[in-house]
Amino acid sequence: MFRKEFEELKATGQLPSPSGVGMRILTLTQEEDCSIDELIETMQADPALTGRIVKLATSAQVSTSRPISSLNEAAMRLGLKTVSTVALGFTLVTGNRSGACTRFDYDGYWSESLACGIAASKLSRELGRADPAEAFTCGLMAAIGELALACTHPEDYAEIIDRLASDPGLDRKLLETEAFRINHCEVAASLMADWGLPERFQDVVMYLEDETGEDSLDESSMQLFQVLVDGAIIAKYCMAGRQADPVLLEQLNLLRRRLDAGDIDLAELCDEVVADWVEWGAVLELPTEDMAERVRSANLEQQLSGNKVIEVVEAAELPVRVLAVDDDPLSLRVLARHLKEAGHEVHTARNGREALAMTLKLRPQIIVTDLNMPDLNGLEFCKALRRSRFGKRIYVLLLTGDGNEERVLEGFEAGVDDFITKPFIPRVLLARLRAGIRLVRLQEQVERDQEIHMKNAMQMTRLNRQLKEAANTDFLTKLPNRRCAMAHFERTWKHAMDTDTPISVVALDIDHFKRVNDDYGHDVGDVVLQETSRVLRQSLRRQDLAARMGGEEFLVICPGVAVDVASHIAERVRSAVEENVVEFGKFKRNVTVSVGVAQYEPGIVDIDHLMRLADESVYSSKSGGRNRVTISPGLTPKLRSA
Amino acid sequence: MDNSDDKSLLDLEIVASLKALGGDDDPELFADLVSMFMDDTPARLQAMDEALSAGDSEALSRVAHALKSSCGNLGAFSLAELCRAIESAGRGGDVDGARPLVEQSKTQYERVRTALEAELA
């Protein structure tokens, strides 16, 4: 939809891009036959980059075991794809630190992005959702669209930044679309697609600022989305500190409640994020040390408890956005002056038509309008307003030339909330206005409460889904666990019986696993299990399901195929595991698996029976010297061998 | 002319409150209002004359209404009252009845103008 617009941006040659090494990494990863060594060599050409990647790999570890010391190890831990992505992110930060847009705060931008990456990564690790290293990089690059627009349209974007600063109620994405026909989220997603980053990244940044964004995401993007949304809130707090406004504090309050459920303390988490932020700031040469002062001197607990929803009566004294409408310039000038004097943000329009257009753009909370005007009078204006979704909620105060009851009644029928006769007494006007503000505030509070309610309900749904997922997943290898495998097996088995189609299973056991654990420690054992799971998953067909059944035992369920195909799959797995060198610390070698294959045939009574046959073949493989595949002879071995 | 007549010609309390309303934020407010008034009113009076000769009662009441608003804001209540009478005559289709009122308005406007100029000095 916005492909053309993005190509136009690209044609300016001003889009942010990874610098030297980053660009080479990008080209390499887009080649089909790029080797690990080539990539690692490229990264090592930049010692600062290497240091940063190693540091990140260490901080993104789930268990806090030994620090990671080499790029090889980092690649092993994070996976090559993630390491490349991380490298790309870092070269972006170092290569795009200034630009032509006078209003764009480049250091501020990268500092906030860095805080977002750190917070998202921490949340990811603490909650066990998404991948911490991915969360870091995606957080670092999530707002890249803003930088891109500032670089490609420095002057127009400066104007947008100014408009946003003078009226925070404006919608940034809307302004961007008006000016460039593409908004920063779309730009970010396009850039990421261009750089070949994971599709998840694109989905997540596309919907990041969308309140209902989660509905559009699939399961794997959802986790990343969630940690990023929350990370962005924490990042905003890092930037604002003691100057955090009530809206941000309200968001933090909600976040704190959400985190409480996972037994995470928001204030502690913020402290950790800030400490890392300062440390990373030094590594990336960003002024986070100075910025951190604002948040170090703040007391989040106090800020949150002080941010009680403001009393409604008190709130009636707070300024609102008012649109004043009158065709007589002199009257309009006086009216606007009175409203401004009372501290409100005042905009003016000279007739109903103009007022209608401005209402859409400015979203006033209160409108004070004259009755008699050419080009849509006060009543017609009000009727039109009440037909629009947004216009229904605005408080309308009508100015009438006389107290003629018929006219007043007509006004109420058209949807005005109150009226006042001209010439008005200023104090009466302001008193009536306060009554209106009180109503507006009450309504806003009801809406806010509803929103909190809805968010909590959504949170519950999400939590349930996560619990369900956790119950079905092996934590270490992320493979389905025994419970999940058995449920899946029941369904597949039933389907095979119903449709009279074949079904086979492959059972595997890592050879001499106990020895690995004893000789190298459990950390290495864990890595071996993770690596074997990864290789296993990659060697399967789409419709096969692999599960960790416990210890070093795995099971693959292959629907629709007899033992001939299943044994091919088994052999593919066996050789892939054998070829994969696992490297971690002092450990640097491959492991092997003993495999057994069995297919269903009449006479096999149930799932357990079929699994038992496969297991027996695993034993045969073991006793036959390990690292081999044995096909179960089935129920009638004598007949078959004859 | 007695005092109460003066007050309805130009209510000095309103004038004072408008001067105060401008305050430090908008010190030119009162001067702006007066110059708006002096720029617009002659044209409006002329528009009323034209409406009278064209027998256009609707235009007459519309222009009178607009002038009434301006007068009310400045505190020129007797002129505002004349406008109100013209507006309602116009609404009743009574163009002839409005004719002497329009004439009175012209004289009254000159007096309001003089009073306003004195306030500006």
TrEMBL record, chain A:
<dbReference type="Pfam" id="PF00990">
    <property type="entry name" value="GGDEF"/>
</dbReference>
<dbReference type="InterPro" id="IPR013976">
    <property type="entry name" value="HDOD"/>
</dbReference>
<dbReference type="GO" id="GO:0005886">
    <property type="term" value="C:plasma membrane"/>
</dbReference>
<dbReference type="InterPro" id="IPR029787">
    <property type="entry name" value="Nucleotide_cyclase"/>
</dbReference>
<feature type="domain" description="Response regulatory">
    <location>
        <begin position="321"/>
        <end position="437"/>
    </location>
</feature>
<dbReference type="GO" id="GO:0052621">
    <property type="term" value="F:diguanylate cyclase activity"/>
</dbReference>
<dbReference type="Pfam" id="PF00072">
    <property type="entry name" value="Response_reg"/>
</dbReference>
<dbReference type="InterPro" id="IPR043128">
    <property type="entry name" value="Rev_trsase/Diguanyl_cyclase"/>
</dbReference>
<dbReference type="Pfam" id="PF08668">
    <property type="entry name" value="HDOD"/>
</dbReference>
<keyword id="KW-0597">Phosphoprotein</keyword>
<dbReference type="InterPro" id="IPR001789">
    <property type="entry name" value="Sig_transdc_resp-reg_receiver"/>
</dbReference>
<dbReference type="GO" id="GO:1902201">
    <property type="term" value="P:negative regulation of bacterial-type flagellum-dependent cell motility"/>
</dbReference>
<feature type="region of interest" description="Disordered">
    <location>
        <begin position="621"/>
        <end position="642"/>
    </location>
</feature>
<feature type="domain" description="HDOD">
    <location>
        <begin position="15"/>
        <end position="211"/>
    </location>
</feature>
<feature type="modified residue" description="4-aspartylphosphate">
    <location>
        <position position="370"/>
    </location>
</feature>
<dbReference type="InterPro" id="IPR011006">
    <property type="entry name" value="CheY-like_superfamily"/>
</dbReference>
<dbReference type="InterPro" id="IPR000160">
    <property type="entry name" value="GGDEF_dom"/>
</dbReference>
<dbReference type="GO" id="GO:0000160">
    <property type="term" value="P:phosphorelay signal transduction system"/>
</dbReference>
<protein>
    <recommendedName>
        <fullName>diguanylate cyclase</fullName>
        <ecNumber>2.7.7.65</ecNumber>
    </recommendedName>
</protein>
<dbReference type="InterPro" id="IPR050469">
    <property type="entry name" value="Diguanylate_Cyclase"/>
</dbReference>
<feature type="domain" description="GGDEF">
    <location>
        <begin position="501"/>
        <end position="634"/>
    </location>
</feature>
<dbReference type="GO" id="GO:0043709">
    <property type="term" value="P:cell adhesion involved in single-species biofilm formation"/>
</dbReference>
Automatic annotation (TrEMBL), chain B:
<dbReference type="GO" id="GO:0005737">
    <property type="term" value="C:cytoplasm"/>
</dbReference>
<protein>
    <submittedName>
        <fullName>Hybrid sensory histidine kinase TorS</fullName>
    </submittedName>
</protein>
<dbReference type="InterPro" id="IPR008207">
    <property type="entry name" value="Sig_transdc_His_kin_Hpt_dom"/>
</dbReference>
<dbReference type="GO" id="GO:0043424">
    <property type="term" value="F:protein histidine kinase binding"/>
</dbReference>
<keyword id="KW-0597">Phosphoprotein</keyword>
<feature type="domain" description="HPt">
    <location>
        <begin position="26"/>
        <end position="119"/>
    </location>
</feature>
<dbReference type="GO" id="GO:0000160">
    <property type="term" value="P:phosphorelay signal transduction system"/>
</dbReference>
<dbReference type="InterPro" id="IPR036641">
    <property type="entry name" value="HPT_dom_sf"/>
</dbReference>
<keyword id="KW-0418">Kinase</keyword>
<feature type="modified residue" description="Phosphohistidine">
    <location>
        <position position="65"/>
    </location>
</feature>
<dbReference type="Pfam" id="PF01627">
    <property type="entry name" value="Hpt"/>
</dbReference>
<dbReference type="InterPro" id="IPR045871">
    <property type="entry name" value="AHP1-5/YPD1"/>
</dbReference>
<keyword id="KW-0808">Transferase</keyword>
<dbReference type="GO" id="GO:0009927">
    <property type="term" value="F:histidine phosphotransfer kinase activity"/>
</dbReference>
